[in-house]
Amino acid sequence: MKRGHFLKSLGGLSLMPFLPKAQAQAHPSVSNCILVPSETPGPFPLDLTDNAYYFRQDIREDREGVRLRQKVRIIGAGNCQPMPGVRVNIWHCDRDGDYSGYGTEAGLTYCRGYQITDENGECEFITIVPGWYPGRVTHVHFQVHVSTQYSAVSQWTWPHDAVVQAVLDHADLYPEGPDPLTPGQDGVFADGYDLQMATLQWDAAAEEYVSEFEATVEGEGTVGVGYEEMRTAQVMELGQHYPNPAREFIVFPLVLHQPGMVSWSVYDLQGRHAGPSHSQMLSVGQHNMRIDFNGLGLSRGSYIAQFKVEVGLESHVLVRRFALLD
Fold first, then answer.
1. 276 versus 204: which is more confidently predicted?
2. Are 308 and 252 in contact (CB under 8 A)?
3. pTM for the complete prediction?
């Protein structure tokens, strides 16, 4: 299957089961299960679903700036537990305050991308500490795409002193100097920003900043209520895969409510095909779809398994994120 077909399918994700509540509570919470405030997507949102290129972890491209490892965790307000399998889009300006895709930057794609949350509701990006532009503090736009029916759009920022220090410590990379505004002076955050504040710490060993941000959105991580999800549920369901993490193999319980041609494959988090690819006509009922990793040469890490069922002229896709050990 072509990479673009796989990435377009991420718009209609079926969500994975939750972790036990005790595990969820063990993770430090910033949002305290309070809905993140809704903010404008900004003048430069771009619909990331329109371009398969944006499914990637490293969104820097050629932009200069100090390296930032951004971790994002999504919580469902319905039960205060992690939301696995949802798509998180992020976009921000470069060190000079410019956004890709607009004005003089038309046709460019830097500092934009999306990822799929894992079983802990987490995903990660590699980018740079953004710059700033007049009237706005240093910030990142994000969208949590829960289903074809609902998505949450907001922004996060960092403690002002931490951002200023990051720029001062790497002054050669930031010719515009440190951010002159504080979050309290930014009109977008005029109604408060406690739930939109990420952490920012320097990791000397890795020579990068590490940031963590947690947001709570509506829902409990169940299958979305959009038309696409409802149609897919009439055709197919995916149960909990096992073992996870996997080593030599992994099994995905697939239930077909209608017979169809089933195709499945594995991709890495950069959207690259990692193999194998198979297609088979299957009947109604449960099928344990086993993927063997022997001989594939896959390294330790996270991957996406995609299952596509073609019934007549319609096709339905579900994806699952899983972990692979050495």
1. 204
2. no
3. 0.76
